[in-house]
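Task: complex structure prediction.
Instruction: return structure tokens for all chains below.
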Amino acid sequence: MGWQEFFKGLFKADINAKVADTVQTGDGDTFKGCTFVINLNIPEAAVEQDGKKVINPEKLSQDKLNMLLALLNSRTQELPKGETIVLTTKDNNWAEDIKRKDSAPDVREILEFYKDKIPAADLIILRQAMYIKKVFLERRNQDVRNMKRDIRDKYGKRGANITNLCTAGYYEKDFNEMYEELSKIYITEDKIKAKFLSLYDPYVDDLPCSVFVSIGMKEEDIEKQIVTRLKYGIDYIKVHGIGSSNVKRVKKVISVLEKTMSIEKNIIDDNNVITAELTFAKRQED
Amino acid sequence: MAEEIITFTEDQKTKEFILKIFGKTVDAEGYIVEIDNPAQKVLTPDGEALLFEDFAGVQKGSELFIKSDLPSIFKVATRG
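Output:
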């Protein structure tokens, strides 16, 4: 018994022929390259929607239901370890979107560059962060917020920092440039990598020169983060914010700081994504 | 991934049907548990108890219940 027998008679004749064709491209038992969906809310036992075969097990005859359960059971037994047995339609679509974006040349290039330069655990997070960045560019803001929360829940503060650094372009530019500069100073690959890691590692933990503004941060929180860095002698700070309210608060804080400090600014405000590079020359109270 | 892809819709009824096939149900707190032993919570590969609302699917392993979050779905997508 296989999928071919299960699907026999379930669909209208023309669809049956298509199903038979699909099955025959496999080994007769394999429903090759085909997606079918289990949905208990359709009125029919089986229907084709958007090229997918949708089955309602509650509407199947007892014989067909038994066959379906047996096929799912044998699938569970026969699949190699780690293979997906069933997945929600939403999560399957999500997995397909991940596969598409993860294989993009720019993502591959960055992962290839960092694969032997940063810790393996960071590379796993960076790969997911690259995906979040691509979703962010599609302006799927709620999805981005949810995924950032997932990263923080699973990998903690370091995960959140890697995601923020990635979204802000540090892996494409800043860290890359840092590595290139070190390549001019040190001769052997091992020394370059070791020096790079000694700078990169604490940076990701503490973000000494970066402030990432999130929705929950008040103006005084942003100011405090900047001032704390200044107290530690850091005079170059990059402030990042996404969304109109964050952009507005970043600009307000900068104008407040400018009343008491001399700041050289380079502000890029592109479609409610702000990057403010601030170089602090002198504090009036110093 | 296997050649045939079997998905199920996210509504409560269909998710409960899928869980039942694998001998699982949902307890009063919303966690997925064994039908035969409701005190036994189903765990994700990371050893985390899984809420019904976070249930994404099942992997062979013998049976691994997948959480609907980025790290878990990323693992499913990039396997192999």
